[in-house]
Design goal:
Oligomer: single chain
Number of helices: 7
Strand order of the largest sheet: 3-2-1-4-5-9-7
Mean pLDDT: 85
Number of domains: 1
CATH class: Alpha Beta
CATH superfamily: Vaccinia Virus protein VP39
CATH architecture: 3-Layer(aba) Sandwich
Distance between the termini: 37 Å
CATH topology: Rossmann fold
Structural class: alpha/beta
Largest sheet: 7 strands, mixed
Strand content: 25-35%
Helix content: 25-40%
Length: about 240
């Protein structure tokens, strides 16, 4: 996760410029509003970034106990400034190795779990932190995301919807899922790649044209669009 942390720290000053991240987070919050959750509620946001979506999450659950974690300390500095007026507890932590003593009624994660080395194992660990009547709401990109770059880059693989759904089923969740395709248009290749970098998502790319210098020669690329295939999962458990 060291490379992931480094990439997101580098993107700290531009992270909130990503309207895509905000749009996806807004859609995920709309699904969360429809969940049947207990009151009071303990919530944790995994991969909170600068806290922009976390702040909106807290508005859905006023006066409730909310935690937010991320591995990128520079993003968390911005989150602490944004959320300093709230009671949200913010920690630098890796969701692969949570160490909370209590359980959560809602685990929320917007565009973060795809960075897991094994998302299925991560979901199993998260399940261990949920109460008997609880929910897990998260968004992740699916295979097909950034397919416009396949000729110039190797896209590190995203986990398929089927594999994620099978894992949720095996863990005993009742769940619904929704998939949407979002296409962004750009005036030139530089702006398209800058969009990825500003999100901290450049870790999904590996150069396939090894003969090119480390500094990208944009004359080799003609990218005017980027497509993101996004899946939203709302998983609930209601154990006796």
């Amino acid at each position: 996760m060291t490379n992931i942390k480094r990439a997101f720290n580098r993107a700290a000053n531009t992270y909130d410029d990503s309207m895509l991240q905000q749009k996806i987070g807004g859609t995920l919050l709309q699904f969360v509003e429809k969940l049947n959750l207990p009151n009071p509620i303990r919530v944790i946001d995994l991969g909170c970034g600068t806290g922009l979506v976390t702040e909106k999450l807290a508005q859905l659950f006023p006066n409730q106990e909310i935690h937010a974690i991320d591995i990128a300390d520079q993003l968390l500095q911005l989150a602490k400034k944004r959320l300093g007026h709230t009671t949200i507890k913010i920690d630098e932590a890796d969701y692969h190795s949570l160490s909370y003593k209590n359980y959560f009624d809602l685990v929320f994660s917007n565009m973060a779990l795809q960075w897991s080395e094994n998302i299925c194992e991560t979901l199993k660990k998260i399940n261990g932190y949920l109460t008997k009547k609880s929910a897990l709401a998260f968004s992740v990109p699916l295979p097909g995301t950034l397919n416009e770059l396949n000729n110039q880059f190797e896209i590190l693989p995203f986990t398929s919807q089927k594999i994620i759904e099978t894992t949720l089923m095996d863990l005993g969740f009742n769940f619904t899922s929704h998939v949407e395709s979002i296409t962004l248009s750009f005036d030139n290749t530089l702006l398209a790649l800058k969009c990825i970098k500003n999100m901290g998502a450049n870790q999904v790319l590996k150069r396939t044209q090894k003969h090119l210098s480390k500094k990208i020669n944009f004359n080799h690329f003609h990218i005017s669009k980027l497509t993101f295939i996004i899946a939203y999962f709302m998983a609930e458990k209601n154990e006796k």
